[in-house]
Specification:
It is a single chain. This protein is mainly alpha-helical. It has one domain. 70% of the residues lie in helices and 0% in strands. The chain is built from six helices and no strands. Helix 2 runs antiparallel to helix 3 and helix 3 packs across helix 4. It starts with a helix and ends with a helix. The relative contact order is 0.13. The mean pLDDT is 84.
Length: 103
């Protein structure tokens, strides 16, 4: 149970993420997207980063924390304001979706 939903009575932006990922692992992409589309996109993104990091480490003999690694390029950089605003809009849209579907 979601603590945010327990306290406020409305679902958080992450509500349905576990069910979405389980549905995705069972091959039901449509159901996964219905539960929480943002969770599906983030899972795909994290898997891509992990696989890319492993190949970078094996093929280029580069440690994951190396300054040229994808981890550092993504997580240790200064993002433009528009990307932060876009992430906030996507999160708000996902939250609205969770509230509207009555999750």
């Amino acid at each position: 149970m979601c603590l945010f939903k327990e306290i406020t009575g409305i679902p958080c932006p992450g509500c349905g993420s576990t069910r979405a990922i389980i549905s995705l692992f069972h091959g039901d992409v449509g159901q996964a997207l219905w539960y929480n589309p943002m969770a599906v996109v983030l899972l795909v993104l994290f898997v891509f980063i992990a696989v890319y990091s492993v190949f970078d480490w094996i093929l280029r003999k580069r440690e994951p924390w190396h300054k040229e690694s994808i981890y550092n390029k993504i997580f240790h950089r200064r993002w433009p304001v528009w990307t932060i605003v876009l992430a906030a809009i996507v999160t708000a849209a996902n939250w609205y979706w969770n509230i509207r579907k009555g999750l």
